Amino acid sequence: MSGEASSLSSGLVLQGVDDVEDYIWANEGEGSLPWDRFSHVFDLVQNGNQAFRENHFEEAINCYSRANNIKPGDPIILGNRSAAYSRISHFLKQRPASTSEYRPLNGLDPTIHAELALKDADKEGSLDKLEKYELAQDIILAGLQVDPFSNPLRVSLRNLESMLPTMMSKSLGKPERSDDFDCTLCLKLLFEPVTTPCGHSFCRSCLFQSMDRGQCFAVYLHVSSYASASIHLICFLMLF
């Protein structure tokens, strides 16, 4: 934002205090500090003044605030910080809304963070139902990188971490099921599979109930005769 403030002030006159007051090298009387601490305060104010004159208002405010923590209530420090706040407020007032939408000063809009995190939450829920817990955990962590304060994602992560050891122990040693032996008609494991002459397999009941014409559903080739159940495929499936 400091760079934008510098470019903006080169074309527009920012209202408010034109300059800040230099800090005097004097540490006497009531409220005096040890010289090492006073020297640190002096350096902070000088750095803040330089940042102010270069239109780096956030850096100037930070320096003045640190100096005020060491020597609270100092009129010069408070006055300079007030001037920096005044200049930065006028900069924000003059900044067009279209510029803020195109280039936000403080990151993405919170609603955008929420929308991005919601997609990860939905994907995590789907993976959870598929019992892909490790992948679901990775999706949650990726969503938290986008929006670290998303309550739905944080709750989902806690719930998943609490149930992950139990679910992993249940699935330990259990082979991952593939869809190589699924029927393309009912999308379930082949039952009494029938193989067509073109080499595609379906459940016997699915094939007979759905075939209203003499063509294979996969390649639309003519099925000249109904193939009987493949004995070899049945024997292979019975091993499971």
Tell me about this structure.
Helices cover 58% and strands 2% of the residues. It is an all-alpha fold and 240 residues long. It has three domains: 2-102, Serine Threonine Protein Phosphatase 5, Tetratricopeptide repeat (Alpha Horseshoe), CATH 1.25.40; 110-171; 193-238, no CATH class. The chain has a two-stranded antiparallel ribbon with strand order 1-2. It starts with a helix and ends with a helix.
Which features does this protein show?
single chain; 240 residues; mainly alpha; Serine Threonine Protein Phosphatase 5, Tetratricopeptide repeat; 3 domains; two-stranded antiparallel ribbon; 58% helix; elongated
Discrete helix count: 10
Strand order of the largest sheet: 1-2
CATH architecture of the largest domain: Alpha Horseshoe
CATH class of the largest domain: Mainly Alpha
GO molecular function: ubiquitin protein ligase activity; zinc ion binding
InterPro entries: TPR-like_helical_dom_sf, Znf_RING, Znf_RING/FYVE/PHD, Znf_RING_CS
Domain RING-type: 183-216
Protein name: RING-type domain-containing protein
Can you describe this structure in just a few lines?
The chain has 240 residues and is mainly α.
Layout of helices and strands:
Blueprint: H1 2-11, H2 35-53, H3 57-70, H4 75-94, H5 97-102, H6 110-129, H7 133-146, H8 151-171, E1 193-195, E2 201-203, H9 204-210, H10 231-238
Antiparallel strand pairs: 1-2
Helix pairs in contact: 2-3, 3-4, 6-7, 7-8
